[in-house]
Amino acid sequence: MEGNKIIMKKVFIIHGFDGSPNGGWRPWLMSELDKKDVYCCALSMPAPKKPICSEWVDEISRHVNKNQKDEICLVGHSLGVPAILRFLEIYKGTKKISRVVLVSGPIKKTDNKFVNKFLNKPFDFKKIKSKAKSFFIIHGDNDPLVPLSEAIELSKLLSAELTIVKKGGHLNGSSGWHKLPRCLKAIL
Q: Which fold has domain 9-187?
């Protein structure tokens, strides 16, 4: 308890490009966290087929800022990863984000013009690292969209624990992932 207010653990999941809150392993993760009395919400990001970085950052900010008293964990998949990183660059909250779990996320330009708008300038990793207590990275060893080398580089830049999933693909529903126990473990 902080003063007279109960501190809750709250998890916000940010889906990827052309994604939805209820795709892949997100419903399973929300259900598993609910069993442990942890509030979890997969955010519905604006215009997922034509995402605009500032709109995604604003959506993350809106949820985090409303819950400043709580212990916040952010989970991002694919484009949700650079969206979280951009959010952390501008985050002005007085309380650090408790945990950040980054799954299959790009940090270098791709052949997708919408994704590239999230990656159009270098990340300020010093600032990003100062805004969260811990970082975890989960990545498939054969991801067809985001090379494993980007996850390795990101883990070094964030001093993050890296979990490599054998034959994980992009760790999405299309790759057959409807549960992601490593993500649950990183959150808890």
A: Rossmann fold (3.40.50)
φ, ψ (nearest 5 deg) of residue 24: 55, -130
Polymer length in residues for the chain: 188
Residues 168, 180: Cα–Cα separation, whole Å: 10
Decide: 76 and 47 in contact? Cβ < 8 Å.
no
Catalytic amino acids? Answer: 78, 143, 170
Q: Which residues pair with 72 in a beta bridge?
A: 10
> Whose CA is closest to 28, among 181, 188, 187?
181
Q: Which spans in the chain are helix H? A: 26-35, 53-66, 80-90, 113-116, 125-130, 148-157, 181-187
52-61 pLDDT tens trace? 999 999 999 9
Euclidean distance between CA atoms 155 and 149, whole angstroms: 10
Tell me the average pLDDT across 13-30. 96
| pTM for the full predicted model | 0.95
Distance between CA 55 and CA 45 in Å, rounded? 8
